[in-house]
Amino acid sequence: MGKSSKDKRDAYYRLAKEEGWRARSAYKLLQLDEEFNLFEGVTRVVDLCAAPGSWSQVLSRVLIKGEKFGRAGWQDKQKNMRDYVLGGGGEKEEVKEEGKEEGGVEGEVEKKAEETPKLTPREGVRIVAIDLQPMSPLDGVTTMRADITHPSTIPLMLKALDPDTYSPSSPLNSSPVDLVISDGAPDVTGLHDLDIYVQSQLLWAALNLALCVLKPGGKFVAKIFRGKDVDLLFAQLKIVFERVRVAKPRSSRASSIEAFVVCEGFCPPEGFMPSLERPLGAGTVLPEPVREEPVSSDAKKPEKKVTSRVREDGAIEIDLGDETDDEDDIEEGGRRWIAPFLACGDLSAYDADATYHLPKDRVSLDPVQPPTAPPYKRALEMRKLAGGAYGKTKGRAEKAAS
Ligand SMILES: C[S@@+](CC[C@H](N)C(=O)[O-])C[C@H]1O[C@@H](n2cnc3c(N)ncnc32)[C@H](O)[C@@H]1O
Fold this sequence. Notes:
By secondary structure, this protein is an alpha/beta fold. It has helices at about 5-10, 10-20, 25-35, 55-65, 70-85, 90-100, 105-115, 155-160, 190-215, 230-240, 325-330, 375-385, 395-400, and strands at about 45-50, 125-130, 140-145, 175-180, 215-225, 240-250, 260-265, 305-310, 315-320, 340-345.
């Protein structure tokens, strides 16, 4: 598929190039943030499976430069919109008239936001990004080339987080982090069961690393493939996190089984110690937290209490009282649990499965950061050695020349 054809079929691929992101995946993180406000109060982050680095770019721009995207950007836009509509006055009226010609209120609000970008860089930011592939440097991000499924990566990561204070004799005493994100994906084979299995290995490895570094109350966001036993995974995650939800950003194709678990409120069971020697893997069962004695079965269940509140951003949040009823959703002796599913990303955002018409004279841009060491690079080199030009064998090239 040519570059410009891909531009039409994949709006987020095109947008990423236009807006300076290394990969279209950036929009997945931004849309997750829109829904879950992931970066609020966050300064220390580990980005797993990070290459080519668009998630790290988002982290760098939000935490280090203090730019506003995702939820914070949306809130700003809403505020500008409110100020614009409620502002009134002669001067404002004039602006409104101009705005009408150039894209209406929305256009005017966007223009205002662009004119006055308020940067709020955070203090004490630490971002560590890890991938099997090398990654081009990014402002303020420590990049590491390592396999997240290998136990030796854990001390390397801890050292990268605290190079000055890290002590190999008590590695788990390093300062904890607020957020661990993982966009890990194997090279998909098309054999669904195999792909889901390999993906689950990456997820367990990411969770294991998260258990070693997260602070109580911390967050964990990771890519999953929604296979048939994914509810077992949710039940396991629910042991160590207060809230577990599964989300599908609008930039993730509906046709793909990809989704993201968003786990908030890290609360390891009492006495739980992550192990560097015996990392988690598929089939590992996390220790159940010590629960209070169950009340007798004929004791009256608390009634579901439906409450609602108006959030700061003006949205009305309705709580159906499910939090108190988690036990109802658990089947098979507490081993399965269905996590609430949320679609996220503004409905007006591009549809990842749609093809868009582009103007005929539109120039297709090159990717912001071509892969530094793509797996196909060696194959191309070997082919070049064997036959000269890409795609032509030596024999054919000689025949053509004679
Ligand atoms: C979808 S890409 C990540 C994109 C990235 N989040 C971004 O925004 O640019 C998946 C990455 O997972 C990495 N990966 C797969 N298995 C890995 C492993 N065992 N350890 C580290 N990285 C791994 C791949 O090298 C690949 O770069």
